Amino acid sequence: xxxxxxxxxxxxxxxxxxxxxxxxxxxxxxxxxxxxxxxxxxxxxxxxxxxxxxxxxxxxxxxxxxxxxxxxxxxxxxxxxxxxxxxxxxxxxxxxxxxxxxxxxxxxxxxxxxxxxxxxxxxxxxxxxxxxxxxxxxxxxxxxxxxxxxxxxxxxxxxxxxxxxxxxxxxxxxxxxxxxxxxxxxxxxxxxxxxxxxxxxxxxxxxxxxxxx
Amino acid sequence: xxxxxxxxxxxxxxxxxxxxxxxxxxxxxxxxxxxxxxxxxxxxxxxxxxxxxxxxxxxxxxxxxxxxxxxxxxxxxxxxxxxxxxxxxxxxx
Lengths: 213, 93
Ligand SMILES: [Zn+2]
Known about the structure:
The structure holds two protein chains of two kinds.
Chain A: H1 10-20, H2 24-42, H3 48-65, H4 75-93, E1 120-121, E2 125-126, H5 141-144, H6 147-159, H7 162-173, H8 178-185, H9 189-211
Antiparallel strand pairs in A: 1-2
Helix pairs in contact in A: 2-3, 3-4, 4-8, 6-9, 7-9
Chain B: H1 15-20, H2 22-26, H3 32-44, H4 46-63, H5 77-92
Helix pairs in contact in B: 3-4
């Protein structure tokens, strides 16, 4: 391989070649693989009907600009970024989210993952669990996996700062790797892990509080 | 690791420090020294073991919330396919 393909896997090259020659099967498979994920992510920013429109426009943009794809990013994250640009522009126009420039804001804070007042051991002092946390994670499945918990988690995700919600959704809902998320969102791996950690810790805290009684 | 120099017990690090390492641990992103501290602490601290289990459980529950009723294909797929094929055909001329 003479071309530099540091970030793409070999599968991408075959798919891109297929798209460029108008191969229906290749296109259908790619759309089927990524469309649900794109729609779910677009819904983080705009209502459902608009999210579907944005994704349709995204696919049109993919068709029109695939010749210009240079393989510096994975095809998947390149497509995702097209969607992200469109949906953020739309959402900002409708003032549904904070301006793009403040997206990284939440990374600078030092909010601890567990309330420091809950970490105070009788002998060891501050910074240590007084006793192990309540084991809500061992509750029976019918209490953990019902509609009610789902709705709580959805609401918890909505309540996260945008930058945390993006990372948690891509990593934990869509199952993307940290490398893919960094590439898709244009953030560093350290930043990505901080946002993921803050988001997960907030959701854990929410579940603990909800399931405690 | 600590501002007060040395932790006077076998836990190596405080729970409040271990808690902030959990996501890096799950991503295999800890350096050797932090990994050693984290695992030693975890081996002795039930509270942090539970916290780690609960973060894992949280991740699983969050992943279960993915809306699987989303349409696999966009409503305008036929148009998209035509656009792709027209472009492909045009380039072959
Ligand atoms: Zn601990």
